[in-house]
Amino acid sequence: MDRDTLVIGAGSSGLAAAKNLGLAGFEVDVVERADDLGGNWNFAAETSRVYGSTHMISSKPFTQYPDFPMPDRAPDYLHHTDVLAYLRRYADHFGVSDRIAFATSVEQLRPLGEARDSGWEVALTGRDGEETRHYRRVVIANGHNWSPKLPSYPGQDDFTGEIIHSADYKSAEQLAGKRVVVVGAGNTGCDIAVEGALRADATYHSTRRGYWYAPKYALGRPADQVSDLIFTLGLPLRATQWLFEQTAKLVVGRYERFGLPTPDHHFLETHPIVNQTLLYHIGHGEIAPVPDIARFDGEVVEFTDGTRVAADLVVFATGYLIRFPFLDDDALPWQDGRPQLYRNILHPHRDDLAVIGLIQPDSGQFCLVHWQTVLLARYLQLVRDNPAAAAVWRQRAADRLDERSQGGLALIDSTRHLIEVEHLDYIQDLAADIAALDALLHDEATRHEVVA
Amino acid sequence: MTWPVRRRPRGTRIRRGPVGAARRPYEPVLRRRDWTLPPPASRHRELISALPDEPVEGRPPLLFVHGAAMGAWAWERWLPQAAEAGWAAHAVSLRGHAKSDAPSPLARTPLRYYEHDVLQAITELPSPPVLIGHSLGGLVVQHVLERYRAAPAGVLVGPVPPAHGLEVLGGLVRHDPAALAAALAGREPRPRAELLVGRDTDHAIAQGWADRMGRESSVAATQALAPRRPRDIRAPLLVIGGGDDRVVPPHAVSRTARTYGVRAHLFRGLGHLLMLEEDGDGALRFMLRWLEDTLHATGRLRASAPSN
Ligand SMILES: Cc1cc2nc3c(=O)[nH]c(=O)nc-3n(C[C@H](O)[C@H](O)[C@H](O)COP(=O)(O)OP(=O)(O)OC[C@H]3O[C@@H](n4cnc5c(N)ncnc54)[C@H](O)[C@@H]3O)c2cc1C
To answer: What's the CA gap between A295 and A307, in Å, rounded?
Structure first.
């Protein structure tokens, strides 16, 4: 017997998908490999990539689901345990928890045909062993922050110290008393460098280029709220960037003074690095900034400027790969290292497969993911209720497949920006689509016009 | 063929209108003000509850929202009766009202802070509640229903209209200009008792309710009167009012109902505070029966599927 809709993953994206598709009248099953919901925020899970001290880097208002605010009593930036509690209440409140099969993973997805609505054969492994089911449609929400991306340098295999990826970094204990090299200036890399400053014997922070480091607070308020306020002032992009850069100069001065390279790009042109304490610890001599690694040599790590330091531990905070291990490569339209989906959600050739959460926003996720799932639900409703109108809308979408909602920013070319979206640009694109789909869904006149 | 696909012209960049600029179809999604200038968090929010001895399986909770200058106490007559009829009934006090604290000056509190308070109360409930709002709270509930689409139903009791708030102004100017002026100035309105209740309710008792009223935000009161285009509400709606209501007169209640494509139910002899009046118990019974029927009809009473 055919089942209706399968959502893969009970992280923040899968939960929103299950809830909003359920509200739109679809029968949703959720499968989750771990024993609990929460995905990345479920610290106990094998694929969780948060560490003991992780707090959110985006503040509550834009991060939260718009119809389920984070509690007033929670601080501006939630600790990961509070995020998990929040996700649990969301799932319980909207009745999603009852629909999740835990300790169940999708091993393989096979299309049941070439048509847009053929459906999928799903091979599952659960508590009761293996099982194969047919679903009318599948929504993938397996996350993109779990499969480590590891660089390789000459001599790496013969390095006498230990090398780990930040995926395996769970607590500052791992750094205690060691000489540590942290590689990568993402938010995780900066957090680990700061923990090194407090716990390690010596901390070297290796970054490939100069970055802009944004504070968590500005003018006494969470900085992301202030920057969104500046965005809504209606200034041209360059003027906004200039404003941010001048503010950075006023607050920290020139990065060169700290031994950091000058940023080689304008503000906003990389995924934001939000860290208030990194420069503080550099200024206190507790973190030594160093450039890219050149090679390993026994117990020594050599950097591109010729600096050589002996190290006990190297932490590669070098990011994660986009992976769908249960899907054949040709099932998604891969292009330049990312699946080319409409608004990072809809498959151009199929209505029975969609991906939710495949974005890296320069702000909070849950809000954007909520609207992603609303868009998906509206589109699927239109396909169900008015296929002709859906076909016309789809044609328009196909013409815009290359739109990436990056706010006109010239993001520096890096795998880290494959699925980067500028949150204000992206939410407006989603909003425009949702309004258009709503109009089609509610417009009886166009229905007859199209059908006729 | 004109096609209602709104698209952003290619190449336009981050659209930065004035904060919260209403591009109507987009604003429910964007809600810019709420991320850039979020409502200040409150430290204490009053929620009073009456729970049934024997809960009826699968019934959603009820969340009552009071009107201007009142508090959760406005529902003290209805809550126990609803619980007795088998409904988990809760009433929230908006910030700065009754026992809820005011994290910022009450006089300058906009309506969206009240919406936030209702959403905060909603997140504390085990499943999506039926939202019931009286007067100004009825307007707040309309706003919340626009963005909280999981609500199984909504009930508006003598609601401030979604768009034509000025119709309320006329009656107040005629019947009790002093109370109106006080409310708009952020002082305690101290309305005259006969403004608030129907002809059968003892004015001395009504005076007690009037005296219990606190202050209201002048910003919220002004916003409530200002014209605004109502948006789509997905939840089934019931609109009820008092036939003798002098604050939100029957014609304004009917117009609100028409706005949402439903018929208003007006109860003869009842005034604006019908939920406190003795004869208002009939309105509660009517509402609970309507809820029961509506939730059955929309399949929302099934215990297993609160999300559908
Ligand atoms: C250190 C760190 C800090 C972060 N800080 C923030 C922040 O401040 N704000 C913010 O918005 N975001 C932040 N993020 C991003 C974070 O990833 C998102 O908030 C969010 O958790 C992504 O949710 P998701 O549901 O898309 O993916 P995940 O949370 O990864 O969930 C995917 C789920 O799918 C399950 N799954 C995968 N494959 C299968 C399968 N084959 N079968 C069954 N189940 C499967 C997994 O077990 C997992 O539970 C941070 C990430 C990291 C690593």
So the answer is: 11
pTM: 0.94
Is the CB of residue A181 less than 8 Å from the CB of residue A309? yes
Q: Which atom of ligand 1 is closest in space to residue A188's alpha carbon?
A: 1
Q: Which of A99, A225, A235 comes nearest B35 by C-beta?
A: A225
pLDDT tens digits for B23-33?
Answer: 456 777 888 88
Which residue is it, tokens 């529902």?
B75
What residue ranges define each of the domains in chain A, with the CATH number in brackets?
Answer: 3-146+321-451 (3.50.50.60), 150-316 (3.50.50.60)
pLDDT digits (tens, 9 = 90+) for A375-387: 999 999 999 999 9
Those residues of chain B that have pLDDT short of 70 are: 1-25, 301-308
DSSP output for A130-141: EEEEEEEEEEE-
Chain B interface, best mutation among A62, A92, A93, by max B CB count within 10 A: A93
How many contacts, defined by CB atoms under 8 Å, are there between A and B?
Answer: 145
* Domain harbouring B139, CATH code: 3.40.50.1820
| Contact predicate A36/A29, CB 8 Å | no
- Cα A24 from Cα A385, distance rounded (Å): 12
Q: Which ipTM did the prediction report?
A: 0.92
pLDDT in tens, A109-162: 999 999 999 999 999 999 999 999 999 999 999 999 999 999 999 999 999 999
Instruction: Show the domain range for B130.
Output: 32-296
Residue type, B44: H
Q: Which of A92, A98, A106 is nearest to A34 (CA)?
A: A106
CB contact under 8 A, B150 and A72: no
| A299: DSSP letter | T
| Closest CB from B26, B120, B128 relative to A94 | B128
**DSSP letters spanning A31-56:** E-SSSSS-GGG-TTSTT----TT-B-
Using alpha carbons, list the distances in angstroms from residue B235 to A124, A320, A441, B92, B215.
37, 42, 17, 20, 31
Question: Three-class SS of residue A6?
Answer: strand
**B272 domain-assigned:** yes
Q: Does residue B305 fall inside a structural domain?
A: no
Residue pair A348/A172 in contact by the 8 Å Cβ criterion = no
Q: What DSSP letter does each residue of A330-393 carry, written as one string?
A: GGS-EETTEE--BTTTB-SS-SSEEE-S--EESS-SHHHHHHHHHHHHHHHHHHHH-HHHHHHH
Q: In whole angstroms, give the CA distance from residue A46 to residue A48.
A: 6
A428 touches B: beta carbon within 8 Å? yes
Tens digits of residue pLDDT in A40-85: 999 999 999 999 999 999 999 999 999 999 999 999 999 999 999 9
State if residue A14 touches ligand 1 by the CB under 6 angstroms criterion: yes
Q: What 3-state DSSP class applies to A294?
A: strand
Element (H, E) at A240: helix A237-252
A152 by Cβ neighbours in 10 Å (0-12 / 13-18 / 19+) ranks as exposed
Taking CA atoms only, the protein residue closest to ligand 1 atom 10 is A364
Q: How many domains, chain B?
A: 1
Listed in sequence order, the DSSP H helices in chain B are 27-30, 32-36, 78-84, 111-123, 136-147, 166-175, 177-184, 193-196, 203-212, 218-225, 250-259, 281-297
- Determine whether the interchain pair A431/B45 forms a contact, defined as Cβ–Cβ distance below 8 Å: no
**Residues B131, B137, B139, CA angle at the centre, nearest 5°?**
90
3-state secondary structure B145-195: HHHCCCCCCEEEECCCCCCCCHHHHHHHHHHCHHHHHHHHCCCCCCCCHHH
**Structure tokens, B226:** 């200002």
Domain-embedded: residue B264: yes
d(CA A162, CA A181): 10
